[in-house]
Design goal:
With 343 residues, the chain is α/β, with parallel strands linked by helices. Helix content is 51%, strand content 11%. Helix 12 links the parallel strand 6 and strand 7. The longest helix has 25 residues. The chain is globular and about 60 Å long.
Length: 343
């Protein structure tokens, strides 16, 4: 069974030879090939080389174009300082909550802007190199995350109360652009699009259901119509959101470490694939290989069917390599038998 076959059998609830494993690598992958995180997110070739290296070294099942939150924001015209080992720092927010902002959103072209076009080309190279055997995960910001990127998180949250009509018009423009961006990655060879909507965990479940969920549903429906699957990633404690997230149309829901997987399964239902979810800091970064293995085994035991194993969020950049190997299926794996126990 190839890695891609393994993932899609999981999504379909069919037997697999082992549980799929798909950790989120960014800065760690760059350092693995002796490059900086800034190199990783500003140079498409470094990103692909880094991702190919960790995919092969740890025998994981999906290669990803995830990099940083600012690609689309830069395409809208935001300016950034890019430190060597951190995410970009915006000079100023782009949206001021004024009508003129809306015309700027509608006029943006995410397919030709430098950093968004680079991601499309990275996906193309990944698909050419490894797409026959591995799932290739494109990436796009979710509607509320992108709005918060452009407006600022605090202002974005207040807008749902004070300027809901402005958010709705801006959200419509953003989601149309995100659809074009996602579909361009599908055309380039992505069989799945990851959608990161991190800021959505900060708003109430009712606000998520009213304002964000309909936009996600539009995006995910377009991706599905193009023939690709969807992975929804909302960092943080999503225990009060996950039942709504299960109505988004996402094939996979990432579950961060603070949400018990058994509870997540109960809330999401049996037909959505859950992906997670041991603590990437306290467990993966700071503990021993055996402790990582123990935590991974608990996830496997709690998640039920349709489950993919990974830490709750990104692999921290200083994580010991042996801790990663402890839960990945290649050399150094400490959970080989438990990975194979579900068929």
């Amino acid at each position: 069974m190839t890695s891609k076959e393994r993932i899609y059998a999981t999504l379909a609830g069919e037997p697999v030879d082992r549980i799929a494993v798909t950790p989120i690598f960014m800065a760690w992958a760059a350092h693995f090939i002796d490059r900086s995180y800034r190199d990783y997110y500003l140079d498409g070739d470094v990103l692909v080389d880094s991702q190919l290296a960790v995919t092969r070294a740890f025998e994981i099942d999906q290669i990803s174009a995830i990099s940083d939150p600012w690609r689309e924001a830069s395409a809208y015209g935001m300016q950034f300082e890019y430190p060597e080992q951190g995410v970009g720092k915006p000079a100023a927010m782009l949206l001021n909550g004024e009508e003129g902002d809306l015309a700027m959103l509608k006029a943006a072209d995410l397919l030709t802007a430098e950093r968004t076009a680079q991601r499309i080309e990275s996906v193309r190279r990944m698909a050419a190199e490894i797409g026959d055997t591995h799932s290739v995960l494109g990436w796009a910001e979710g509607p509320f995350a992108e709005y918060a990127d452009l407006r600022g998180v605090e202002a974005a949250m207040f807008d749902l109360i004070d300027k809901p009509d402005f958010f709705k018009v801006a959200g419509d423009a953003i989601i149309e652009n995100q659809i074009h961006f996602a579909l361009a990655q599908v055309d380039a060879g992505a069989d799945m699009i990851g959608v990161g909507d991190a800021a959505a965990s900060l708003i109430s479940p009712d606000a998520y259901k009213q304002f964000v969920l309909p936009l996600q549903q539009r995006l995910f429906a377009a991706i599905h119509e193009a023939g690709a699957a969807v992975k929804l990633h909302i960092c943080g404690n999503i225990v009060n959101h996950i039942a709504h997230m299960a109505q988004s149309g996402a094939n996979i829901i990432d579950v961060d470490w603070m949400v018990p997987l058994a509870e997540a399964r109960q809330l999401a239902g049996p037909y959505v694939t859950l992906c997670g979810n041991f603590d990437p800091a306290a467990v993966l970064l700071q503990s021993s290989p055996q402790a990582v293995a123990d935590a991974a085994n608990k996830c496997i035991d709690a998640a039920g069917q349709r489950f993919i194993l990974m830490p709750g969020c990104e692999v921290p950049q200083d994580t010991p390599e042996e801790n990663i190997r402890a839960f990945c299926p290649g050399q150094g794996c400490l959970i080989t038998e438990n990975l194979k126990c579900r068929r």
